[in-house]
Amino acid sequence: MQFVKRLVQLDVDSTFIQQEAIELLAAKAGVFDEVSDITESAMRGELDFEQSLRARVSLLKGLPESVITEVQQEITLTDGAQDLVNTLHSKGHSVALVSGGFIDIIEPMIRSLSIKYYKANKLEVVGGVLTGQLNGPVIDRAAKAAALHEFSKASGVDMENTVAIGDGANDLDMMAIAGLSIAFNAKPIVVDAANLAINEPSLSSVIELIGLK
Which family does the UniProt entry place this protein in (predicted)? Predict the structure, then answer.
């Protein structure tokens, strides 16, 4: 049988990792409740993602840069995430991570898993302190979809052989253009739009769902 290369692109917060990194940062700034309310509203698609992200990041202004290292150590991979990456890589497939969260937080994890393709937002730090701003363009719905196109080309995978996995409104555009879309413990708006849905706190069924078992 001819080998068909796949690209599996995953959202990060509450999909590839168990936490929402911005909420961990918010807890350290004493603004957890405010940030959590904005996050929930954005995930349901009630707020423009970029607006909501900038509003949340502004509440982190003044935090010392050292909190980034602390939060890196607090995030944990979703059950089955590491096995999924290792299995895909060992079978010659590609993995991409796209996050409305922060590259500052997930970089060590990306390196340790040898993930070649990724995009996330960058926190602005000046003089060892978070400014409450971001560096560069925001990774929103449109950017996640653009990343899927970019990474499929870079990895030599036809769009029809791409898989997109996510849980919130910010993932809808990439899921709409992927060959196969999987909602992961997702908001109703995302489940309705997806081809398949996982309703358990584990990514271990993905290999089977995409026909690679």
Answer: Belongs to the HAD-like hydrolase superfamily. SerB family.
